Amino acid sequence: MTKNRITQLFNIELPIIQAGMIWCSGWELASAVSNAGGLGIIGAGSMYPEILREQILKCKEATNKPFAVNLPLLYPSIEEHVQTIIELKVPIVFTSAGSPKKWTPLFKQHGIKVVHVVSNVMFAQKSETAGVDAIVAEGFEAGGHNGREETTTICLIPLVSDAVNIPVIAAGGIGSGRAMAAAFSLGAEAVQIGSLFVASPESSAHQNFKDLILSSAEGDTELSLKQLTPVRLLKNKFYADIQESLQQNASTEDLKVLLGRGRAKKGMFEGDLVEGELEIGQISSAINTIKPAATIVAEIWTDFNKTIQKLQSSF
């Protein structure tokens, strides 16, 4: 086991964490990553309470290693999710999309480690004050919902790591061991990876979505819908409709109507590449094969160590 504050906090072998992505991160992916020595995360944001319960129970059957649940704090049935997490003794919770101040004390009262996802220094400091155990600092290269500041990972990680005393996990554009080594040099003690794990057999993403990721090129994603909640999307007809509406000075209400309900499910889970919302990071342009989650973890760790050794031998 590699020992640093993150691996000791989570009791994991490797400081590699799979992001809890809606419609892509069920028990199969989470357990595979945890069994490979990292930390797998179930993405609760797309799950009804009874589905989350089922996913946690299946994950416990598939691994005897620690795993986590990602809990968007703006989720409508958050109270039910919180009670399920506590009742089933999930060891770690990654919170996002809101303030961790309300729920962190309750989780910690039940011995649950809490990590909060932030996109700027102010929220990192507020999260530390709220009592979280670690921070995910997510740069704007990341897929899915993102920070309005558009701060890149290479700028954000040192800013956050200098501003807080708790461990920092780097996220956004991490797609290789070289990127992991860069994140560690900036002050991170682990990395959180999403896009690579979407393109794995264990991911619950639709095969159409996975295939489109493999064929995506540089510049095929863009941070969009900043008037509502910024989200990085693969460009498709839905994305083009957003851009056309913005050119016509669409109001916030107009954009809400265009977005509607279930767009992310339609795109990522049901495979509608035309009308669906396709959330993925900039690193998607470097993904060209479907790989098992365990292979992704092993390759990143090997590449990370080779990069560190190369750097050490260069000076």
Main attributes of the structure:
globular, 43% helix, eight-stranded parallel β-sheet, single chain, alpha/beta, 315 residues, TIM Barrel, three-stranded antiparallel β-sheet
Topology:
Layout: H1 5-10, E1 16-18, H2 27-35, E2 40-43, H3 49-62, E3 67-72, H4 78-87, E4 92-96, H5 104-109, E5 113-118, H6 121-130, E6 134-138, E7 144-145, H7 153-163, E8 168-171, H8 177-185, E9 190-193, H9 195-198, H10 207-215, E10 221-224, E11 231-234, H11 237-247, H12 252-259, H13 263-269, H14 293-313
Helix pairs in contact: 2-3, 3-4, 8-14, 11-12
Q: How many β strands by DSSP?
A: 11
Inertia-based shape: globular
Order of helices and strands: HEHEHEHEHEHEEHEHEHHEEHHHH
Q: What oligomeric state best describes the polypeptide chains here?
A: single chain
Radius of gyration: 18 Å
> What is the count of DSSP helices, taking H or I runs of 4+ residues?
14
Name the average pLDDT: 93
CATH superfamily of the largest domain: Aldolase class I
Annotated CATH topology of the largest domain = TIM Barrel
Sheet with the most strands: spatial strand order? 1-9-8-6-5-4-3-2
N-to-C span: 27 Å
Largest sheet: number of strands, sense, barrel closure: 8 strands, parallel
Would you summarize the structure shown here?
It is globular, with a radius of gyration of 18 Å. With 315 residues, the protein is α/β, with parallel strands linked by helices.
